[in-house]
Amino acid sequence: MLAKQLVLDSGISTGSFEDFVDKILQLGAARNSAYVCCANVHMVVEAHRDVSFRQVLDEANLVTPDGGPVASVAGWLSGQPQERVAGMDLLPALLAEAARRGQSVYFYGTTDEVLQAIVDRAKRELPTLRLVGTCAPPFRALTPEEEEEHVAAINAADPDLLFVALGCPRQERWMAAHRGKVKACMLGVGQAFLVYAGLEQRLPLWARRLWLEWAYRLWLEPRRLWRRYLITNSRFLYLMARRTLAGT
After folding, report:
1. What is the pTM of this model?
2. What DSSP designation does 117 have?
3. Please, are residues 13 and 3 in contact by the beta-carbon 8 Å criterion?
4. Residue partners of 142: CB distance under 8 A and separation at least 6
5. What NCBIfam families does the entry give (predicted)?
6. Is residue 109, in this structure, part of any structural domain at all?
7. Cα distance between residue 67 and residue 214, in whole Å
8. 229 and 150 in one domain?
9. Quick one: pLDDT at residue 186?
10. 134 and 175, same structural domain?
11. Do 168 and 212 sit in the same domain of this protein?
């Protein structure tokens, strides 16, 4: 297991990008029902605010440093440089390595349109990839019967990796609730579905290194995301500054 570094109240896994890819595929091959969270600033602040959500992160097998600030703080606290391990980068890397190793994948979440675009790209670029199923659940709470049907369908397909895109914190809570029920390694990758499907563009690498991805997404969806980014990012900086000063 990769070592974790405490950022605010959340344990963030540390290691190289390649370490994460290899460990996730090992978790999938073991079929022991595991889950992986990709933690950005919003998720870390939400875990600080909500004890029940903090427990979801605490119990995850891996919590990747998805956001640039989270990766930088984890590296600073550990004394070792820590690169960002974003869901948007993990998804294509895991698919390519799964195809090479002969491991299987399943996609759960978003819409049929997005899922079809993902399937089309994966078949075009990775013809040997074992893509064993997709499911776009309705945008509402599922009945217990529907939940059982979805879990049964996933387990019948028998994937190594189950990519989940239900939005934060819903996807993380869903994975935690289904540990022990879904026999795969579950990964909450959210927005990565849209990017991989080609329905949303990413900023150039130089802009991502300057932590500008949040500003780009805010520009795309200002009404939905203004509170998350402007208030939550400011709160993260405040909480980290307070913790730092308290420790000096």
Report:
1. 0.89
2. H
3. yes
4. 150
5. wecG_tagA_cpsF
6. yes
7. 9
8. no
9. 98
10. yes
11. no
Q: If you average pLDDT over residues 102-128, what whole number do you get?
A: 97
110, 175: one domain: yes
pLDDT in tens, 147-184: 999 999 999 999 999 999 999 899 999 999 999 999 99
Domains in the chain, number? 2
| Judgement on whether residues 68 and 179 belong to the same structural domain of the protein | yes
Cα–Cα distance, 68 to 72 (Å, whole number): 6
Which tokens hold the place of 226? 């203004």
Parent domain of 219: 206-246
Residues 15 and 113 in one domain: yes
Same domain, 138 and 226: no
The answer to the question of residue 85 being in a domain is yes
∠ CA 170-175-179, rounded to 5°: 150
- CB-CB neighbours of 128 under 10 Å: 8
Tell whether 115 and 35 lie within a shared domain. Answer: yes
β-pairing, 4-7 vs 10-13, is antiparallel
Three-state SS at 185: strand
**What contacts 70, CB < 8 A, 6 or more positions away?**
7, 12, 39, 40, 41, 44
Q: How many CB atoms lie within 10 A of CB 62?
A: 25
Residue 157 lies in a domain: yes
Which helix (H) or strand (E) segment is 71 a member of? helix 68-78
Question: How many Cα atoms within 13 Å fall on the side-chain side of residue 186?
Answer: 29
CB pairs under 8 A, 24+ apart, for 233-236?
Answer: 233/41, 233/69, 235/45, 236/8, 236/41, 236/44, 236/45, 236/69
Hunting for tokens 């391990």 — which residue is that? 85
Largest pairwise CA distance in the chain: 55
pLDDT at 224 over 70: no
176-209 pLDDT, tens digit per residue, is 999 999 999 999 998 899 999 998 766 556 555 6
Three-state secondary-structure class, residue 2? coil
